[in-house]
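can u do me a favor
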């Protein structure tokens, strides 16, 4: 009989070098995928922060546009605005009469005293105090005319005095600045044209537009800064200077933010700057 001798077949297996190579390739792939997810997460977070900021600044600027568009432009009414006799420093304040609904009336009021300010907690507030055109009602205060001024009748509209008619409309806007664009094309902090001999605001007769700039910080980033730090930062952002050019204000502010090293960069980098022009229709 013939016998066939079969040799045992060796078990197939990876060598140590092959195992090390496969582990290295797997590690590289894991790192690449992790970086992709990390980048996507960062982009998503940055987008959410930007949306959060714009969700505050844009509606506020839209609201200001409505108030200014309905502003009462008469030579016999008062305006509380920056001027050579009222050179506001730091955060600006503004108060004027506007034909928009106000608070404090049992029915819709035809006119309001509107005011904007940054309060002591670094939040933008708006006042919309309901008024009536005349004194035929005891429930709503009447409109006042010069020589009665806003500051003498409603001091809270011109300073930081607490008033229940104020409401916080943008808790993350901590800097508010504005200037005027005159009908001769110049940008200035004086709301009248001295070149034609005018010395008073007189119903905004010389103002073609109001230019406003705001600084807004993301909600999560704001937690990294104390109220004192935010006030300090707002104070570092410069006021409008004489004869500014479009874009100068935001450029100066961004330079200050880029050079800020004594506060968390994670917070400073999430501050967004916005600007807008608000046309002022001529009075007739």
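np, heres the sequence
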């Amino acid at each position: 009989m013939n016998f066939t001798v079969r040799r045992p077949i060796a078990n197939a297996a990876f060598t140590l070098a092959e195992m090390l190579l496969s582990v290295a390739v797997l590690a590289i792939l894991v790192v690449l995928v992790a970086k992709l997810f990390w980048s996507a997460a960062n982009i998503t977070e940055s987008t959410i922060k930007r949306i959060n900021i714009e969700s505050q600044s844009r509606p506020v600027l839209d609201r200001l546009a409505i108030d200014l568009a309905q502003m009462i432009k008469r030579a016999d009414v008062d305006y509380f605005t920056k001027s050579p006799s009222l050179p506001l420093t730091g955060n600006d304040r503004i108060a004027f009469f506007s034909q928009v609904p106000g608070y404090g009336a049992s029915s819709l009021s035809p006119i309001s005293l509107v005011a904007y300010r940054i309060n002591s907690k670094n939040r933008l507030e708006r006042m919309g105090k309901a008024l009536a055109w005349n004194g035929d009602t005891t429930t709503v205060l009447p409109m006042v005319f010069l020589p009665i001024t806003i500051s003498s009748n409603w001091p809270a509209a011109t300073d930081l005095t607490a008033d229940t008619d104020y409401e916080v409309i943008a808790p993350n806007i901590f800097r508010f600045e504005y200037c005027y664009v005159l009908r001769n094309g110049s940008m200035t902090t004086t709301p009248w044209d001295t070149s034609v001999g005018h010395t008073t605001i007189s119903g905004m007769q010389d103002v073609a537009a109001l230019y406003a700039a705001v600084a807004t910080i993301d909600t999560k980033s704001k937690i990294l800064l104390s109220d004192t730090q935010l006030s300090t930062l707002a104070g570092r952002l410069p006021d409008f200077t004489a004869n500014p050019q479009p874009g100068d204000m935001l450029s100066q502010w961004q330079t200050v933010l880029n050079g800020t090293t004594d506060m968390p960069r994670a917070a400073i980098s999430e501050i967004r700057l916005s600007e807008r022009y608000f046309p002022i229709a001529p009075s007739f």
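Helices lie at 16-69, 150-153, 219-222, 227-236, 248-258, 265-268. hope that helps!!
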